[in-house]
Amino acid sequence: MIENSIVYRNFRGKYEYLPISKAQGSEIWDKDGKRYIDFTSAWNVTNLGWNNLEVNEAVIQQAKKNVQGLLWGSDPIQEEYAKALTSALPKSLDACVKETGGTESVETAIKIARTYTGRKKIIGFKNSYHGQLFASVALGYSPNSVEKLSPLVPEIIQIDFPHEDVGEEGFDKFISDLENLLSKEDIAAVVTEPGIITGWGSTVVAYPGFLKKVKELTQKYGTLLIVDEVGTGFSRTGKLFGIEHEDVVPDMIVLAKGISNGASAIGTVVGQSVIFEKAFSDAILVSTFGWTPIACAAALKTLQIHRRDKVWEMAKKKGEYILEKLKPFVGKAITSLRGKGMEIGIRFKNPETCSEVRKKSFENGLHVVVGGNDNMQIMPPLTISQKLLDKGLETLIESIRK
Ligand SMILES: Cc1ncc(COP(=O)(O)O)c(C=O)c1O
Questions:
Q1: Residue 245 falls within a domain, yes or no?
Q2: What is the average pLDDT value for the chain, to the nearest integer?
Q3: How far out from the chain centre does Cα 276 lie?
Q4: Helix (H) or strand (E) run with residue 80 in it
Q5: Is the CB of 371 within 6 Å of ligand 1?
Q6: pLDDT score of 37 more than 90
Q7: Is 192 in the pocket of ligand 1 (CB under 6 A)?
Q8: Residue 25: which of 398, 386, 316 has the closest Cα?
Q9: Looking at the domain assignment, is residue 11 inside a domain?
Q10: In terms of domains, do 315 and 291 share one?
Q11: Residues 6+ apart with CB under 8 A from 308
C-alpha cells in the first residue's frame, strides 16, 4: 500500500483516510467527488476557509517577485510582515524569529529561554501537544507512551493542567505546587497553551485566571512564560490571540498553523527584542526555509483579513451557536461540552459512541476528527456560512441521535 507512496501515521481507526481532490471554503471533495462539510480546518489551519482566494492570490503575486530568503539577509515582504505581526500583538512583543512551523518554533522558544536565563529546567503540562521533536514531545507526552523514542530532552518537568472543574481548592493547590517549583529559581520557562488545550485532542479548558496566575508567578521568580498559540492563534478562540482572554502578555508567543491559512509553511516566536538579542548572540538559531517570501505574503494577507473582517467575532458568535445546538444532548450521548470560540470539545459517554458518531458523520458528508478517545474536536473554518454550519450540525446531530 505504501510502495511508491507516503507513509501515513497509524491513527488506530480514529481518523478516516481522506484523499482530497479539491477544497474550497468550508467544503472538501474526495477523489471520487464526494463532498464533505469541513469541521476540522485541517486542525486549526484553514481558519479563513480552504484556499482562501485573497491569500492564495497574495502567494501568486509574490511568486512573480521572489520566493526564497537568505539566512544573512532579508526580502521586503519579510520586514513588512514582521511590522504587521508585532503591531497586532502587545507592544513588548516586538521581535520575530523566522521559522517553518509549530514544532520548530516551540523548540526555538525553549532554546531561547535556556540561553537567556542560564537555567535548564522547563515546565510543561501533562497531556498537551506542542509538536514532534524531542523537546516538544517531552513537554506533554507521558514518558511511558514514548519510551521507544527516549532519551528525550532532559530537565523537562510535566505538571497537571488545572481543568475548569478542579474547583477553587484544586486551583489553589495547583498554584502553590507551581510556586514551590518556581521558587527554587532554576526553571527557565513554563510552556502552555493560553487556557485551553487544542493540540492534544482533549479540548480541555483551564480554570479561570489560569494564565494570569502563571504569568504572575513566572515573573516573580525570573522564569519566562512561553505561550503556544499554534492552535489558538488567528481568531480560533474568539479573540485574535488567546492571550487576550485574560489580558496576559507572555515573554514569548509561538504561532504557526492558522498564520498563513495553509497557503505556505511558516511559524514564528514573537518576543522581547532584549531577550532575543542576548539569546541570538549566544546560540545558533537559523532556519533555511523560515519565513520564505511566499510564506510571508500568505501570512501578511491572512493577518490583514483577520483584522479587517474581525474574524474573531465570527468565531465567538458561531461557537456559542454550536454549543447552544448541542446542549440538549448533554447528559445523553454527550457527557460534556467545552470550548472557546470555534474550538469545541464534545466528550461522549464512551469511545465507542464517539467513534460511531464520527463514522456516521463521515458517511453523511461531514468531516470531523476525534482527538482523545472519547472526545471529538470541532474546529470549522471560522468563515463558514450559516447554511453550511447548519447543515453540518444537522448531520452531526443526526449521527448523535442514531
Ligand atoms: C498547540 C500546538 N503546538 C504545536 C504544534 C506543532 O505544530 P506543527 O505541526 O506545525 O509542527 C501543534 C500541532 O498540532 C499544536 O497543536
A1: yes
A2: 95
A3: 23
A4: helix 76-87
A5: no
A6: yes
A7: no
A8: 386
A9: no
A10: no
A11: none
Same domain? For 64 and 172 the reply is yes
- Indicate which atom in ligand 1 lies nearest the CA of residue 256: 10
**Given this model, what pLDDT does residue 165 score?**
94
- If asked whether residues 108 and 149 sit together in one domain, one would say yes
DSSP-derived letter for residue 166 is G
pTM for the model stands at 0.97
Same domain? 205 vs 341: no
**Nearest CA residue ID for atom 8, ligand 1:** 102
- Whether residue 45 has its Cβ less than 6 Å from ligand 1: no
Q: How far is the CA of 99 from the centre of ligand 1 (A)?
A: 13
CA angle, 297 as apex, 293 and 301 as ends, to 5°? 165
Ligand 1 atom closest to 200 (CA): 16
**CA pair distance 146, 160, nearest whole angstrom:** 18
pLDDT in tens, 102-124: 999 999 999 999 999 999 999 99
Q: Closest ligand 1 atom to the C-alpha of 43?
A: 14
Is the beta carbon of 106 within 6 A of some atom in ligand 1?
Answer: yes
Instruction: Give the Cα separation of 252 and 223 in Å (integer).
Output: 12
The answer to whether 257 and 129 are in contact (CB under 8 A) is no
Q: Please choose from 230, 255, 259 the residue to mutate so as to test ligand 1's pocket, defined by most ligand atoms within 8 A of CB.
A: 230
Cβ atoms of 75 and 240 within 8 Å: the answer is: no
The CATH number for 48's domain is: 3.90.1150.10
Residue 53 has pLDDT above 90, yes or no: yes
CB 296 within 8 A of CB 266: yes
Asked whether residue 15 is domain-assigned, the answer is no
What are 87's three cell numbers? 503591531
Which ligand 1 atom is nearest residue 103's CA? 11
For 191-218, write each residue's pLDDT tens digit.
999 999 999 989 999 999 999 999 999 9
Total tally of structural domains belonging to the chain: 2
Range of the domain at 86: 54-309
Does the C-beta of 231 come closer than 6 Å to ligand 1?
yes
- What confidence tier does 285 reach under pLDDT thresholds 50, 70, 90? confident
Give the chain's length: 402
C-alpha of residue 169 to centroid of ligand 1, in Å:
32
- Which residue owns the Cα nearest ligand 1 atom 14? 199
Strands laid side by side in the 156-159 sheet: 95-99, 267-271, 252-255, 224-228, 187-192, 121-125, 156-159
Domain boundary among the residues 263, 279, 309 is at 309
Tell me: do 202 and 180 sit in the same domain: yes
